[in-house]
Design a protein that fits this description.
It is a single chain. With 293 residues, this protein is mainly α. Helix content is 78%, strand content 0%. The chain has helices at residues 6-24, 29-44, 48-64, 69-85, 89-105, 112-127, 131-145, 152-168, 172-189, 195-210, 214-229, 239-251, 255-273, 278-290. The longest helix is centred in the first third of the chain and has 19 residues, at 6-24. The termini are far apart.
Amino acid sequence: YKQKRYADAEPLYNELLERQEKQLGPDHSDVAHTLHQLGWIYTELGRDADAEKAYRRALHIKQACTPEVHDVLVTLGNLAHLYVKQERYVDAEPLYKELLDRQDKQPGPNHRDVAQTLRQLGWIYAETGRDADAEKMYRRALGIEQTHPPEVEDRLATLGNLAHLCFRQERYGDAEPLYKDLLDWQEKRLGPSHHDVAHTLHQLGWIYTELGRDANAEKMYNRALNIARSSPSQDPAILTTFNNLIVLYFNRRKNSEAEPLCIEALNIAKRTLGPDHQEITKFESYLRMSRGL
């Protein structure tokens, strides 16, 4: 198991489970521990139905016993995460709420594990159209994370989720400081040329355009494009940034600056999307417009 040799570990744990059930009884805490390990193994092997069955049995035993609190928390979290992975948000929500309730009592309401659970609940609420609840979860998580020495990955995830939520609601004034904070963290943690930095710059460019701050938008889009140009393999998703900057130039009557971008975007589209893609038709049209044709 420790070596991640799950196919080798599975029959050993199954044999252990059978012996424990005979010698200790089917509701013993050691049986629950073995079922939990099997749940993890089945998840790693892509056998989600078996994982769910093992986790649910383990959880039932742990909740019936005088619980080792951490033990219950881990199984609850793993089963809830399994449901999120399967997009079974209705099943995941009550598990995360129970997990949150237990975590608030122990290890306490300001623990970083509580922040992680709040972020997961925020994701569930966002995915099920409950944006106000999602924002409440994300903001509470962010408040907890800011009181601890930073776990950078957690901070990036929470900031990104909350920023995207505000962006999706077209609350650009609220989204801007979140994306700026996210950008600052990404540049420190990932480096200024990381593709996640380019994505955040793109989002800021969009926000500045919507807020009428065209000079700021141009700067963000150009920075995002420069990161993409330095990448050995160009993601066709960068064509959205080209599109937005070209349209920005057209709106500002800067056709001469739009033209080289049209050519560059057209070449990327042909190379990454194939000769018949609709993006090619669009950028060909843009190129004619940039030349006044």
